[in-house]
Amino acid sequence: MWRWPVVAKKKEVSNAAKQKVFTIHAKLISIAAWKWWDPMLNPSLHDAIEKAKKDNLPNDNIERAIKKWTWEDKDSNKIEQIVYEWYWTWGIAFMVSTLTDNKNRTASNIRHIFTRYAWSMGESGSVSYMFERDWIIIIDLDKYKKDLLEEIVFETQAKDFFEENWMFKVITSLEDFLDTKKIFESKNINFEFADIDFIPTNTVDVTDFDKALKLTKMIEDFNNDDDVEKISSNLNIDEKLQKEVDDFIEKNTFRT
Q: Distance between CA 4 and CA 222 in Å, rounded?
């Protein structure tokens, strides 16, 4: 079980989760707009806007995000992408990617979450060597048959593919992404989501309920932080155990 970008969550989300997705998209647009404000002349900005529109980010939000890096909003603080590396017992490692306009606040929040779950902060490079930077492609299995997608994958140079959370996921190298995309597009297959992420070179199986619960709760805390864009880990929890953990959390969640 790998944890994917928050902008690639399930279709049915709470209002709070939806707002988090909007916040992340707005930050990604602001960062892309720093290079140039016109999406027709800035492919990165055009791509960021298109992804945001897929998640129904209102046009007003898009315009405000662009203005953060133009002369029209000089008071905005610079948004930066910062990755925090952390290592836990059992050989489990995490890469937490953030988008922030306040490094001190974000570092404090990230450190607080990890400390709560007895993790140790790693120095830069202490964990990243356990991951590779690859493209993740996500395709909605409600729209296309799995057998068809598998046939298409074999025509590409994809490194791996699998099904998770009702989505078909393909991993491809940075060099092979464009060719892979062209092959899928030639078959009239649209991506639900595609982005570069940290992919673990090896995974660590977690089979103990208490450990799985602790890790799941920690990931939940990260997903609730507005500055966290995505979470990458080498942990693997099988679907049956994950369902037991999720059911336990659901039954023991206090609601007002």
A: 12
Is 86 in contact with 93 (CB distance < 8 Å)?
A: yes
Sheet holding 228-233, edge to edge: 120-121, 80-87, 93-100, 228-233
Give the C-alpha distances (Å, rounded to integers) separating 90 from 110, 130, 144, 203, 232: 21, 14, 38, 11, 16
Query: Residue 187 and residue 246: Cα distance in Å, rounded?
Result: 36
Pick the CATH number of 80-129+207-235 from 3.30.70.980, 3.30.70.270, 3.40.50.620, 2.40.10.220: 3.30.70.980
How much is the pLDDT for 40?
78
pLDDT at 72: 54
The helix (run of H) or strand (run of E) holding residue 156 is: none
The terminus-to-terminus CA distance of the chain in angstroms comes to: 31
Phi then psi dihedrals of residue 118, to 5 deg: 65, 40
Extended beta strands in 67-144, E state: 80-87, 93-100, 120-121, 131-140
pLDDT value at residue 14? 60
Stretches in the chain below the pLDDT threshold 70? 1-16, 69-76, 119-125, 254-256
Residues in the chain: 256
Class of the CATH-defined domain 6-67? mainly alpha
CATH number for the region 131-200 comes to 3.30.70.980
> Measuring CA to CA, which residue among 134, 129, 130 is closest to residue 196?
134
Q: How many Cα atoms occupy the beta-carbon half-sphere of 122 within 13 Å?
A: 20
